[in-house]
Specification:
Length: about 120
């Protein structure tokens, strides 16, 4: 029997892959979109993640291409400054991804506890 409380924990990552096994949506894109929702800015979301704005745009464009829908609505500067908002499709995708992630995490934690309780 192994000793208890050895610090082991479970980490589950949920990614959506295309037919060729290429990553198309996952925790990074989800965090970026959630940041845009909060900051109303892709630049602000990228900055919070320590990511270059140009890289954030590449990630968004790549996800849009793979998913076949726009994820962001952008407004150009002007009097009140520019900004970004999630499209309806992005809101739905993010909500579905977060719900699935929460369900998978809950199940995985439960099974981890059952199967590894003696560790």
């Amino acid at each position: 029997m192994m000793k208890k409380d050895n610090g082991l924990r479970l980490a589950v990552t949920l990614r959506l892959l295309d037919g060729e096994g290429q990553r198309r949506f996952g925790p990074g894109v989800a965090a970026l979109l959630a940041g845009v929702r909060e900051k109303r800015s892709l630049r602000g979301a990228a900055g919070d993640m320590g990511m270059a704005y140009s890289k954030a745009w590449r990630i968004v464009r790549s996800a849009e291409e793979a998913l076949g829908c726009k994820l962001l609505r952008s407004t150009i500067g002007g009097r009140h400054g520019g900004g970004a908002a999630l499209t309806e499709e992005a809101e739905g995708l993010l909500a579905a991804y977060q719900a699935l992630r929460d369900e998978v995490d809950a199940y995985a934690r439960q099974r981890f506890g059952e199967l590894f309780r003696d560790l």
